[in-house]
Every structure is written in C-alpha cells, then in structure tokens.
Amino acid sequence: MEPFERASFFSPQAGRLIEAPRHAHARFGIGDVVRHRHFDFRGVVFDIDPVFANTEEWYEAIPQDIRPEREQPYYHLLAENGENSYVAYVSQQNLVSDPEGGPVEHPALSQLFDGFAGGRYRLRRGVTH
C-alpha cells in the first residue's frame, strides 16, 4: 500500500465527505486525558478524526496566526475548564498529555465511559466512537 493513498469518510459535523490519508497516526486514544497546549482546559478524548472534519466556518473563526493545519488528527473532547463543561474539537498539535492525571468533571462522562484507572477512561461496553 502506498503511503499517500487516501480514503473518504462522511463527517456529520461538517455535513460533507472528507478526504484523509488511509493511515493516520493519532498521538492520543479514546479515553485519554489531555490538556490544551495554549488554553486552560483539559478533557477526555471520545472520538478522533484523521484530519480536520468540521465546518469551514469553524475553521475560519480561528485567528489565522494560531490556526492549525488541517492535515493532522483532530480530537473530540469532553472538556472542562474549572468553571464549565463542554465539548471541544482540538488539533493534535494543540494537545499534550495531562500531567494532573486525575479524573475530568463532565456530566456526559458516564454515558460514554464506565471506569477510570491509570490516568485514562474505559469506554463503556457497546459504545462505539
């Protein structure tokens, strides 16, 4: 298989087909606890897109001087910032492993995950990302 081979998938979030490399290398996995490199929030990975798969409006709303490249994994997070819980969509280049290693406070966690051990969450049986 050639390294530049591409595939397509439908992104409900973007409402269109997205082209991506057939093989992408995600640094983090489902259930990992991560922290944003520049902004003060952390979260649990619950889905991964191999490349940017959100709307053009979302992408263009990011200031150009900090806008990440499209051709990298993007992570869906159940996020918290100490005041609020929300869903975040973050590029791989802007995430690091969370040094706290503790659980995340988010009301949707129990819908997707059923345990926390060793700094990561275990996906509920029967849940697909």
UniProtKB/TrEMBL annotation:
The keyword Nucleotide-binding does not apply. Gene3D superfamilies: Hemimethylated DNA-binding domain (2.30.30.390). GO terms for molecular function: DNA binding. This is Heat shock protein HspQ. The keyword Metal-binding does not apply. Keywords: Stress response. The gene is hspQ. The lineage of its organism: Bacteria, Pseudomonadati, Pseudomonadota, Alphaproteobacteria, Sphingomonadales. It comes from the Bacteria.
